[in-house]
Amino acid sequence: MPNYQVNDDAVAQARKLIDAGTVDDRTEWSDAAPSADDGNARIEEHGWDGYAAWHLAVDPEANEETKKRYAFPYGDFSKVNRAALIHGKQRASQNGHDEVEQAFDDLLQRLDAKR
Q: Which domain of life does the UniProt lineage start with (predicted)?
């Protein structure tokens, strides 16, 4: 299992989006999660940094400029999805990624405080 690190740039972006109200608190994550093609389009338009900014964790052992390097998405490349925050927090908890779980929890609390 990868030893994920929190992607601080993604956390900062998610905070800004939440503070700006750029959130989706109605759509289930299974309906909002971006497809592989959506990810490819994001990379094509915004590069790897643009893709990485939507993932709260990085696998430092994975090759750079591969999707495998980035994990725990929190939105659909346009909005923070509340259900994604819940899903990510649960998945991180189940797999012992405590720092990633805490990042999700902080963002979820921030989003809920803004609602």
A: Bacteria
21: left (phi over 0), alpha (psi -120 to 50) or beta: left
| Cross-strand bridge partners of residue 70 | 58
Tokens of 29: 């994550």
| Cα–Cα separations (whole angstroms), residue 101 to 40, 94, 106 | 26, 9, 9
Q: How many CA atoms lie within 13 A of 92 on its CB side?
A: 27
Is 115 a residue whose pLDDT tops 90? no
Q: Give the pair of three-digit tokens for residue 39.
A: 């990810």
**pTM summary value:** 0.95
Tokens of 76: 């659909």
The pLDDT > 90 percentage for the chain reads 96
